[in-house]
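To: structure desk
From: M.T.
Subject: fold request, one chain
Message: Could you run this one when you get a chance? Sequence is below, nothing fancy, just the single chain.
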Amino acid sequence: MKIGMVSRFPPEKCGIAIYTNNLVTAMKDNKMDVITIGSMNSTADHKIKFHGISFASQIRQIIKDEQLDQIHFQYIAPYFAPKLLNQPFIKALNQDIPVTVTLHEVQYSNKGIKNKVLRHIENQICKKAKNIIVHSPLQQKFLKNKGYNNISTVLMGITPTNNKPKNNHHLLSFGILSKEKGHIHLLRAMKHLKNHKLTLAGNPVNQAYADELQSYIKKHNLNHVTCDFGWI
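Reply: Done. Structure tokens follow.
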């Protein structure tokens, strides 16, 4: 079986690029034939413009040239022509071969225009793709409750368990820092965890959000919280 993998790839500074590169390496180690399809700044077998209106036609041509049996997209909304509401990507899901999409984010909120648009796009993806992969059972349950039965979970993180609190733990919050992830709630919790240390590590979506976090830390004297902002 020959599989096309569409994602960002190194040397791009992107966590999904590293994730997918490791996935492809593991697949090849297990004797799977994988063709990588990446953005122009990647080292993929095929390089295409993810934001271009010709994205779908380029994918279709690669499928034909490589005689692919399946194609797998690693999806985050900003990757694929956000100004065009991801429509070139949606069009690329219409293929004669099975299409799998890994949703690295699931849109829970339906408040505001932005969230409504993202949920509409997500619904289009779930309807068109043969297989959808998410990273937690809760995400799978949420989408199944919306009527989608093509959802599978591949864990990427931890399974929640009930643990007794312990002292002197050093906590790490790692990843892209955006307001939607609720770091303020974590900082509020740290006011009650004086015997713990926390490191907020990752690249803020903008300077304003970085300033907001640092201002909160200073205002509430959270001396046991450290920020390590930037690409890691």
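Reply (cont.): Helices lie at 15-29, 55-66, 87-92, 112-128, 137-144, 183-190, 207-219. Let me know if you need anything else for the meeting.
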